[in-house]
Design a protein that fits this description.
alpha+beta, Outer Surface Protein A, domain 3, 3-stranded antiparallel sheet, 37% helix, 27% strand
Length: 99
């Protein structure tokens, strides 16, 4: 079952991937399926932020502070990107308190 990503969700890059910076963009290799993915500079900044676990809200707040974007628009677009990354197995999502 696919895990829903919420503002309170903690997200982090999955362990089964490697990534590198390519002049402000990011290239990610999913080690599970051998597929490469690319992120534009904004996506690369988000990727950089989630290399360590953070909530969606924390990532949103950093992006809003660094870019000229409304919080609601940023959150909507961020959730869409995170859903795609989750579907490709590139991030881990945790909801609720850790046991």
């Amino acid at each position: 079952m696919k895990q829903q990503i919420l503002g309170e969700s903690t997200i982090a890059a999955a362990e089964e991937q490697v990534s590198c910076d390519l002049g402000g963009e990011s290239a990610i290799l999913n080690l599970s399926n051998g597929v490469y993915y690319g992120l534009d500079p904004l996506g690369a900044r988000i990727w950089e932020l989630i290399r360590e676990p953070k909530t969606v809200y924390e990532v949103r707040d950093v992006i809003v502070a660094e870019y000229d974007v409304e919080p609601e628009v940023c959150e909507r677009d961020l959730l869409a990107l995170l859903e795609q990354l989750s579907e490709e197995g590139l991030i881990q999502v945790r909801n609720g308190q850790a046991a």
